[in-house]
Design brief:
This protein has about 150 residues and is mainly α. The protein has five helices and no strands. The N terminus is likely disordered. It is found in: Cytoplasm.
C-alpha cells in the first residue's frame, strides 16, 4: 500500500471509530472555531473510549484464559501471548494519556496549532492524527534530527 493510501485509511479508521464524517470546511470559516473543536472532541472521546474498552476486554480475556498448563510448551505459549497483549495495552495506555492531554488542549482552546512554530496544523492532518502537536514541516524536521542523532 502506498504511503498516501495508508494515511487516508488511518484517517478514515479513526473517523470510523468515532462514527464521524470528515469535516467539511466552509468558505471564510475561522480555523478551530466551535464546530471544529466539537468535531475533534467527539473524535478524541470516541477513540479514547474504544481504547479503554479494549483494555477492559484484555483484562477479562487474560482472567478467563489464565490456566496452569502442565506442559511447559503450552505454558510458555500462553505467557508469550499474554506478554504481547500487555505490551499492546501499555502502548494503548500511553496513547490514552496523549488523547487526554489533547482533549485538555481542546477545552483550553489551544488545539490545532503547532507547538514548535505556532502555525495551523490543518484539519486533514488532525483528522489523520488527532493527537498531532506539530505541523507537518516541524514534524519532518524533528524526524530528520532524530535520524541524524541515531545514525
Amino acid at each position: 500500500m502506498q504511503e498516501g493510501q495508508k494515511r487516508k485509511t488511518s484517517s478514515l479508521s479513526i473517523l470510523a471509530i468515532a462514527g464521524v464524517e470528515p469535516y467539511h470546511e466552509k468558505a471564510g470559516e475561522e480555523y478551530m472555531n466551535e464546530a471544529q473543536l466539537a468535531h475533534f472532541k467527539l473524535i478524541l472521546e470516541a477513540w479514547r473510549n474504544q481504547l479503554r474498552d479494549e483494555v477492559d476486554r484484555t483484562v477479562t480475556h487474560m482472567q478467563d484464559e489464565a490456566a496452569n498448563f502442565p506442559d511447559p510448551v503450552d505454558r510458555a505459549a500462553q505467557e508469550e501471548e499474554f506478554s504481547l497483549e500487555l505490551r499492546n495495552r501499555d502502548r494503548e495506555r500511553k496513547l490514552i494519556k496523549k488523547i487526554e492531554k489533547t482533549l485538555k488542549k481542546v477545552e483550553d482552546d489551544d488545539f490545532g496549532f503547532c507547538e514548535s512554530c505556532g502555525v495551523e496544523i490543518g484539519i486533514r492532518r488532525l483528522e489523520a492524527r488527532p493527537t498531532a502537536d506539530l505541523c507537518i514541516d516541524c514534524k519532518t524536521l524533528a524526524e530528520i534530527r532524530e535520524k541524524q542523532m541515531a545514525g
